[in-house]
Amino acid sequence: MSFTLAIVGRPNVGKSTLFNRLVGKKLALVDDQPGVTRDLREGEARLADLRFTVIDTAGLEDATDDSLQGRMRRLTERAVEMADICLFMIDARAGVTPLDEMFAEILRKKSANVILAANKGEGAAADAGVIEAYNLGLGEPIRLSAEHGEGLNDLYTQLMPLA
Ligand code: GDP
Ligand code: MG
């Protein structure tokens, strides 16, 4: 059985980096600068023996503060509707922000399968943020480093029973 995984979360947490790693091609743009990626991007992912469709949510990087929350909400709701499973990503180095809280609220309301990932998890600078992530009420966070490819075994372990 194949499934669709949507990667959601505020800009700059590392969604496209994980998307690229799962898809293995540079289909999603990754950039340090805001304003690069747009809307929703779909690719065929591989993780060990799992094959699935992955959706990268973008299109938020160029939003002004005023429009960001509304756009984020609409885009996330679209992605959640398309997906069987949502991977909600936060930046463990930054800790939980008010925008992260807003996402968590959307995802708690949708009764979708949610996997919580605390990304940029390499190194001690992420320790506090990983602990904070427990407070989001979305279960135990996976400590990920999308850039360094760490924590993918834990992602696999959480995806397996849902696949
Ligand atoms: P997106 O806006 O959520 O799609 O985030 P991007 O994938 O574009 O990444 C934003 C920035 O975070 C880029 O500079 C990435 O190189 C960086 N980044 C992504 N994953 C990691 C990670 O695991 N660790 C660290 N230190 N940086 C990361
Ligand atoms: Mg992106």
UniProtKB/TrEMBL annotation:
GTPase that plays an essential role in the late steps of ribosome biogenesis. This is GTPase Der. The chain holds residues 1 to 163 of 489 of the full protein. Signal peptide: none annotated. GTP 1 binds at residues 9-16, 56-60, 119-122. Belongs to the TRAFAC class TrmE-Era-EngA-EngB-Septin-like GTPase superfamily. EngA (Der) GTPase family. Residues 3-163 form the EngA-type G domain. Associates with the 50S ribosomal subunit.
